[in-house]
Amino acid sequence: MESAPKIIKYFGRTTDFRGKPLWEILGNLKNFGVGRIVTRSAFERYPEPCYYRILKVEALPKNEDPLEARKVSVMVEKVHRGKMLPNPVNIMSTSYKADYRLIPKHEETEYCRKTTPTTVRILPRFIDLPPLLREYVKDETSEENPQMPLVINKSPGYKTYRLAEEGEKPTVDLVMGLGTPANPRLYAETESKEIKN
After folding, report:
1. Alpha helices of the chain — where are they, by DSSP H?
2. Is 196's pLDDT higher than 60?
3. What residues contact 91, with CB distance under 8 A and at least 6 apart?
4. CB-based contact 36:29 (threshold 8 Å)
5. CA 135 to CA 3: how far, in whole Å?
6. What separation in angstroms does the CA of 40 have from each of 47, 69, 193?
């Protein structure tokens, strides 16, 4: 008598991770992979190379919970979008994610080569206010088109954008709106029809 095939159903959140946790990769390498190059599948969206060069590895004590993923403290030289960060970075909080991939030694040179020049996007200095706030500010100040200054992240690191200088034309147009609705028919204006009695 044949048994029915088992049907497996997965519940919960899905993930875009493709790879292995960092400890699983480094624990199987000579000298814990010092000098080797690892990357994440999350970095594959960029045309420029993004990777970590392993400098130092420290194992952390294993958790009591067997279902808890193992973390490791790794000091790395980080290259993000073709630009090396000035100081080494410690990876610990994301080391458990199954998203890391070891670059084979014979592919390291080709992988680390910069492929395309990056273009810096120039953002406008001021943007429109959200619709409700715009109406409130119009009533309060009698200003026809109130705008607010754009504030960008100024933390050190690799940036592919900057604010436009005084008199410079931005290359990016930031428009306040709802975006593209999932069902445009819901937002279309309907013609009112008179009901005849």
Report:
1. 22-26, 108-112, 131-141
2. no
3. 22, 52, 73, 74, 75, 76
4. yes
5. 68
6. 14, 17, 58
How many residues in total does the chain contain?
197
User: What is the helix, strand, coil percentage profile of the chain, to 5?
Assistant: 20, 20, 60
Cα separations in angstroms, 64 against 5, 57, 59, 94, 179 = 35, 22, 15, 19, 47
This prediction's pTM: 0.59
**Tokens at 121, concatenated:** 């996007």
Mean pLDDT on 161-173: 83
Q: What is the pLDDT of residue 1?
A: 60
Cα–Cα nearest to 175, from 121, 124, 122? 124
Q: Using DSSP bridges, classify how beta strands 161-163 and 121-123 pair: parallel, antiparallel or unpaired.
A: parallel
State the Cα–Cα distance between residues 160 and 118, nearest whole angstrom. Answer: 7
- 3-class DSSP state for residue 181? coil
